Amino acid sequence: MKRIVALAVLLLFALSTTAFAGNVGKDCTFKGKKLQGKVQIVTSFPDIKVQVVSSFPDLKVQKVTSFPDSCGKWQIVDSFPDFKIQLVDSFPDIKIQYVDSFPGVP
User: Fold this and answer.
1) pLDDT tens string 16-33
2) What does the domain layout of the chain look like in residue ranges?
């Protein structure tokens, strides 16, 4: 009985943590921030916590060196970003997959 209860609690915890991820709107925004443009990777005080995955992303991201002017195109910068991200292994706000073409909301 204890094993079943422990398994149920673990399952509910796993489902609840993934339920909060993936809040990317069809208009390519997260909490009012457009997910395009100049991005700074930080270790603290991010605007968005991001997990890089190889499948089932919330957003497909293409790294570009100039003109990050459409959904999912990110130019990595060291200063003056449009928004800041922190790369995490668990409890992300959104999950991204790096792609070479066709960035955006899948």
Assistant:
1) 444 455 689 999 999 999
2) 22-98
Tokens of 79: 């200063």
pTM more than 0.90: no
Q: Supply the DSSP string of the chain, one letter for each residue.
A: -HHHHHHHHHHHHHHHHHHSS----TTSEETTEES-EEEEE-SSS-SEEEEE-SSS-SEEEEE-SS---STTEEEE-SSS-SEEEEE-SSS-SEEEEE-SS--B--
d(CA 78, CA 57): 25
Looking at this protein, which amino acid is placed at residue 66?
A: S
